Amino acid sequence: MTEEERLKKELNRLIEENLRLDEANQRLNERLIELYILYQLTHQLSLSLNLNEIFERTMALIQEMLHIEQYSIMLLNEESGALEIRASRGLPEEVMIKCRAMPGYGLSGKVTEQVKPILIEDLSKNKNFIYYPESKFNKGSYLGIPLLAKDGKVLGVVNFHSSETNGFAERDIKLFQAVSEQVSISLDNALTYQRTQELSNRDELTKLYNRRYFFERLEKEVERAKRYQRRLSLLMIDIDHFKNYNDSFGHLQGDIALRELAKVLEKNLRKVDVVARYGGEEFLALLPETDKRSAQRVAEKLRSAVEKHHFLNKNSDAKAGKITVTIGISSFPDDTRDAFELLDHSDKAMYFGKAQGRNRVCAQLPS
Questions:
Q1: What pLDDT score was predicted for residue 101?
Q2: What digits encode the pLDDT tens for the residues 258-304?
Q3: Strands 325-332, 361-362: parallel, antiparallel or unpaired by DSSP?
Q4: 231, 291 Cβ separation under 8 angstroms
Q5: Domains of the chain
Q6: From the centroid of its chain, how far is CA 217?
Q7: Is 69 an annotated catalytic residue?
Q8: I want to staple 362 with a disulfide (CB 3.0 to 4.6 A). Which of 105, 161, 181, 353 is the partner?
Q9: How far apart are the C-alpha atoms of 203 and 213, rounded to whole Å?
Q10: What is d(CA 362, CA 325) in angstroms, rounded to the nearest whole number?
Q11: What's the sign of the alpha-carbon dihedral 6, 7, 9, 10?
């Protein structure tokens, strides 16, 4: 081998080695970027157990670091069983509000049903999928990844959309899965915390709000009413002769009646109203944006609904007994501008109603 040939061979070897080093360096840089993204995501999401804050931080980090054109997070609504969009980028608000998906239906629904990622490289070939009529993402590609709790339960789905066909490389998919895993952990922790907080605010027997939570809401609603010059009313609801009911049918049947009564109250109140068990056989209802005359109509509706309700015997299909309630009313600012005076006023009005014969609504105090 001549010197020239030897040098040429050595040069080629060095060129090949340099290419391998460049490729290795590129892979290393890509891995460093991935680790940095995951570190930032983990750090930011660990700072809060508030769902809305987690959504906001996740959306911001995806936007900043992954450069996805459109993406959304959907959570399963435990009551309806439907997937609902809780956060998104690049999606019209009216679409976000209306969009629902049941498990097994649509791409998001398929992700929850199969509990594994779904990649559609060309949406134009997927005839069963229409994102929304005006969307440019009815073409391009889609990646859906399930969000899973620690026990494997499906929490929801992360949807990624690209306007380009084959818009997700294999490397991207692995990174997006890792991102989704971190989001899953944070959402699982936040939902667990939320459920714990919710339980701490509930009465164990009736599942209505407890008095501690009610007092917190009462003070807040009174302050809001003062600030914005709004009206609100409070109802004190007491079961008539409940001791006699317990003596006749037993305390277990009495507990069943309290649970049934709680459902009757909830059914006949608005979602914005706050109904709570005050203690024993007493209940409270806070009615925002409600003046005294309107509160009297609501109270009469509740009184009538309880009187007509058939409280069943736990041991048979027969009626357990009739239950009636007396309801006292107080209103802000007509009666007082103080939260606990409002409570005291409704309590006194309720007892005045009892003195007049029970099974009635009373908004007056004895003169």
A1: 79
A2: 999 999 999 999 999 999 999 999 999 999 999 999 999 999 999 99
A3: parallel
A4: yes
A5: 3-199 (3.30.450.40), 211-362 (3.30.70.270)
A6: 19
A7: no
A8: 353
A9: 10
A10: 11
A11: positive
The pTM (predicted TM-score) of the whole model is 0.62
pLDDT in tens, 203-249: 999 999 999 999 999 999 999 999 999 999 999 999 999 999 998 88
In the chain, which ranges are continuous DSSP H helix?
Answer: 3-45, 51-61, 93-98, 106-114, 170-200, 211-228, 242-249, 251-267, 292-308, 339-355
Nearest residue to 328 via CA among 362, 291, 367: 362
Distances (CA, A) of 251 to 228, 243, 245, 247, 257: 45, 9, 9, 7, 10
Any idea which of 60-69, 152-161, 191-200, 325-334 has the lowest mean pLDDT? 60-69
Exactly one of 281, 289, 300, 307 is catalytic; which is it? Answer: 281
Angstrom distance (rounded) from CA 138 to CA 244? 66
C-alpha distances out from residue 303 to 291, 308, 312, Å = 18, 9, 18
The answer to whether residue 4 scores a pLDDT higher than 80 is no
Distance CA 68, CA 141 (A): 12
What crossing angle do the helices spanning 292-308 and 251-267 adopt, rounded to 10°? 140
